[in-house]
Amino acid sequence: QVTVVESGGGLVQAGGSLRLSCEASGLIFSINLYDSYWYRQAPGEQRELVAAITGGHNTDYADSVKGRFTISRDNAKNMVALQMNNLKPEDTAVYYCNVARWGSDPSSGSWGQGTQVTVSA
Prior knowledge:
globular
């Protein structure tokens, strides 16, 4: 059973930075053979994709975070990170990590419990 745990959220002023971490355990293979995602959900909003890194090491970002957020992966530690710079109040949300088998839909993957990010104006 795959378990995903996020950490690193907190309260930061606009323009500040945070680094979120996602640790996956129970993987059959190294995390570089999985697709990993960061999603976020603000109050009253639907969960949205923020960033993705595939098993092939391709990355993708939501337009709203391009140039500010960077997703990366540490294969040795089975960890995925999201470096968030120049944060804006609209980045406030609960951030979730998802790890799914390479090429499969995220809905079939494993979710963490989420970590709260709050950006004050």
